[in-house]
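Below is how a single chain appears once it has passed through the pipeline. First comes the sequence as given, then the structure the pipeline wrote out for it. We keep one example in the README because the format questions we get most often are answered faster by looking than by reading.
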Amino acid sequence: MSDDVSSQPTEAVAANNNLAARKPPVVVEEGVYTIELISTNYAKVVRGKIEYEDGSRYEGGIKQGKRDGHGTLFYSNHDEYSGEWKADKKHGEGKLVLSSGGVYEGSWEDDKMHGLGKE
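Resulting structure:
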């Protein structure tokens, strides 16, 4: 049997057409990390994943190749930050849970804890 789609049964042709219409995620290799974007609109915040060489991984908003909007960073040492990001830095409300048991929940500015927060 040939691999030509026209020689396949109608149901198979429909299935192949549906698969062709779906676009796979875009994967960008950037040296120390890999970005997998669900959408390719570079100017807007899109959902995606970034995997870093040290084993850390980020899932959430990405804008122009940087963490932006809401997302979660799973550190390789098992710490976890979930909250707001701006231009690749923790910025806004977020929660950091340390593998040692410590927790900080509150405001972040320019990648640093800002204000009292809840510990």
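The chain has a mean pLDDT of 75.

See the next section for the split statistics.
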